[in-house]
Fold these 2 entries.
Entry 1:
Amino acid sequence: MQGPSIRRLSAQTVNRIAAGEVIERPAAAVKELVENALDAGARRIEVILAGGGITRIEVIDDGGGIAAGELPLAIERHATSKLADEALVRIATLGFRGEALPSIGAAAKLTLISRPAAQDGAYRITVAGGAVSEVAPAAGAPGTRAIVEDLFYATPARRKFLRTPRAEAEAAERAVWRLALAAPATAFRLVSDERVLFDVPGQDEGARVAALFGRETAGAMLPLEAEREGVRLAGLAGPASLSRATTGLQSFVVNGRPVLDPLLRMALRLAYRDVIAAGRHPVAALRLELPAEALDVNVHPAKTELRFADANGVRSLVMGAIGRLLERPVTLAGAPPARPAARPAMTLSYPEPPSQMARGFAEAELALLAPPMARAVPPPPASDEPAHPLGAPLGQIADTYVLAVAGDGALVIVDQHAAHERLTEERLRTEFLSGRVMAQPLLVPVVVDLAPIEAMRLLAQGDALARLGLEIEAFGPGAVLVRAVPAALRDPDAAALLRDLAEEFAESDAPVALEARLDAALARLACHRSIRAGRRLTAEEMSALLRAMEATPRAGTCSHGRPTFLRLSKAELETMFGRK
Ligand code: ADP
Ligand code: MG
């Protein structure tokens, strides 16, 4: 197949298209080249990166190709074969500005090798720093191969703003990940520094989401479908229990175009606002189809933001569909209901004398809870020693809060989960700082299925994770083998743990030092080994918790900054009862 011929846009149209810099980092070049391959009708696209794409990007497709005679035009500014409608209303292709190839050619060395199926042999053209070569015969299969070398070598000022190759690779991977979700029928292979990140055949949408979100995550997501005034929404979204620490597993595709649109992101956030904790994010793969007239994609040179003619309509369509999905009774095995059924009644429980079994458990728990010193001290009765400002336990409320009375008559209420989380974190941090995090080898190594991009991210941090007591190895694309876990965590859910950590190591917009990431990772680990709210504690466990809190720095807040305990002094109680 050969596409329509390439022609120059009229001056008027050129002015209508805001002049913009398209290529600000390797990910942007990758995105433009893959979009060109999709616009050319490719059934199969391969992306090969070296040095995060700064050294080299190669995109190979089996699409319609560029005729030898049109190669010089392809790299000329504002030359496109795509814009049939110069009023910029009906835009069916991913590209239309005719800016990408010339911009890449101005910033790097760009080689195009292309062959329409009907043409005898392939031809090549090279542009480096704006200087264009002759068109010459070359070897090549039908389709196009675009090679970008030494991005920004001509503009050192630009190059200075690039992040590490690792961070640039991650951004480029994300760009391909999004495009692969938008075009499931096309096979995608992504290789970065010789590592195959994903290799997926042409498939239906559900299979593509499973391949790129990870099978386990995708399996827990629920299908949704809705329509309103010609706008159709379809896709998969997670139940509230599937929340993540970042927005990394959210994909929006509008009329076949992957977008990072603020309106859609906000609509999703609002839809989950009441069911997901602050700071957590839902998982979703959503696709919107709407009439071209109802959409302006020419808002941003990278074409990742949109303007909807009926923004309110789109917002309520998304929020309504998710709202209905969250109300559905969850039938999936093991998944907790999306909303708590009703507020549990307050019950005051008194510690029972531990049974034999419970004693064994309590002892193990105490060993974990208390620093060795504190463990040797028997729990004091309602103590008035200043060393025990949290006092002696009275009982538990709703299996969640420990009630205690201090020597000075103050009433102390401890959030057992928040408190234990802080204790575990401090203990891990102490071990970490002394370079002695205890790793507990697993008898049977666990295989964890992740999104390929997450697996890759964790493996890239293998050494750092080993310092946290977590030993992992590659186990095929998207899978990681866990050999050991931090001993302080005892028996964590390895899959949940790795997923959370993958998010901690995601490249954020600002460069974050490894030490800071490890520090945040410690907090994450702690969260995976903490007494749950809703667990009944024995008297010994409650005492041990209070004593350990007193012995631990920063025990007054959990790692999320929430208080771990409240204290009502005798004076405050007297004021409340009007005695003063
Ligand atoms: P745009 O995509 O906005 O048209 P580009 O600068 O990205 O602008 O590409 C210019 C032209 O080069 C395209 O319109 C298309 O005709 C041709 N082209 C670029 N890449 C490919 C490809 N992989 N296969 C076929 N044609 C291509
Ligand atoms: Mg293009």
Entry 2:
Amino acid sequence: MDLGLNGRTVVVTGGSSGIGLATVRAALEEGAKVAFCARGAERLDKVAADLARDFGAERVLARAFSVLEPEANTEFAAEVAARFGGCDALITNAGQGRVSTYADTSDADWREELELKFFSQIHPIRAFEAQLRASGAGSITAVNSLLAYQPEPHMVCTSAARAGVQSLLKSLAGELAPQIRVNAILVGLVDSQQWQRRYEAREDKSQSRAAWFADLARRKAIPLGRLGQAEEAARTLLFLASPAASYVTGARLEVSGGVSRFV
Ligand code: NDP
């Protein structure tokens, strides 16, 4: 199936690692021009140099900033327009989860988490809205979490924020139609830098990486028996973001190995 991304411009927030990086690579493999951001300049520049070598510098644009800075998003959007002539697909992926129970979460933690989850959508969407409207095939695809529908007691504020983001995306799918489609993937557990950090902080340092991840999959009772790969999330994201999904909006697609319990 041709996704119809050849020659189009895809923007990925949080593109220097994990799901975001896999999505940047997959979009380049489809023939798209790709702009992406992350906060840490060192890792971002290294990744951008590798991608420029593999796919050509003229198709790669990387900028270091936090999506929580509104002006930086606006400047990035202007640069994408100047360099690539506009944006066809925005993938809002930047972020991370917060592990804490209700008892452990201070008011400041709540504010920080709600700001991250909501404004990591709102700022980039506002910055790219005009370009997406003008595209003729505009799409926004968010990386959200299964926690939106299945809250976990050890991730109380992330779960609540994720549910709110799903609501926001549903509203946007109506308000931005018909020019811009808005969809989300719901990630379960995908092997990425986030899980690598948790593996490195494990209590039993004698446990190998493979054994630790296998144990995690067992404890979480993932029907497919393993964590997902970043590339598996990336392929789903790109499909929803692409003209191949031209009649899909306001939808959510699980990338979770079947671990959800809701219908
Ligand atoms: P990674 O930590 O591997 O990648 C996160 C990326 O986002 C990095 O490039 C990071 O770079 C960037 N980033 C983080 N915060 C910001 C910010 N404020 N502004 C710009 N860039 C930022 O994690 P994943 O690939 O796992 O995570 C991708 C998304 O998927 C996140 O939103 C995460 O919450 C979500 N998710 C992941 C799950 C999983 O199991 N992996 C489960 C559920 C949801 P830098 O730090 O340099 O800014």
